[in-house]
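FW: tagging you since you asked about this chain on Friday. Here's the raw sequence from the shared folder, copied in full. Didn't touch anything.
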Amino acid sequence: MDLDLADRTYLVTGGSSGVGLATVRALLDEGARVATCGRDADRLAGIGSHDRLFTATCDVRDAAAVQAFVRAAADAFDGRIDGLVNNAGQSRMKRLDETTRDDWRDELDLKFSGVLHPVQAARPYLTASDAASVVNVNAVLAKQPEPRLITTSAARAGILNLSKSLATQLAADGIRVNSVCLGLIDTGQWTRRHAAAGTRLGYPQWQAQLAADRGIALGRLGRAEEVAYAIVTLLSPRASYITGTSIDVCGGVGRSIL
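HL: got it, structure written out here
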């Protein structure tokens, strides 16, 4: 099926690695024009060059920097923005007794700034589009918190709530807002954890053991491309009657029925 993404313009934050990078590549494969940002200039340079790709360094916590990135992206592509993927972020592996006031402040700032700043900056352009869509990359932690990720779980729940509110309030502007909630995805963090574990198990065996321990029904970690497929589907004009919802891409680890 043609997703009708060709010649449309999409912004992806945190697009230099993992799910963000897979999303950038999927959009380019669909013929879209893509602007992406990240904090690491070297990683951004590693994406490569393309006549339909614009990259810039940007910290999503800096509202002025986000505004500048969005303006530059729009200028690069005829003043048009049709969609936004809010992907920038990371997890904080700490339990309650290990967290500080600064941990809570930093985590909430990153998660909420990572959605609000790009939405606010891109909104005028999205309103002018005939098929505007926002996808917030979230996690199943939003629905089933983990004590070892207490600050991230709480922040993720807040972003899921915010996404629903944005879907309601931006509908009048013709902007759809949805979420993709991830389980365990095989990105660089897991290969690093495998190396740090000092185990004799090879990575495939270690990954299978991890999946069994976490109760993943499909018995493996997900791939970034599998998440990207869900994201680009929600961005597509073919999904024009889908807003205010979330899709779990988690291999069956999600146990919430809501």
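FW: The longest strand covers residues 132-139.
HL: agreed, and Residues 186-221 form one domain.
FW: great, closing this out.
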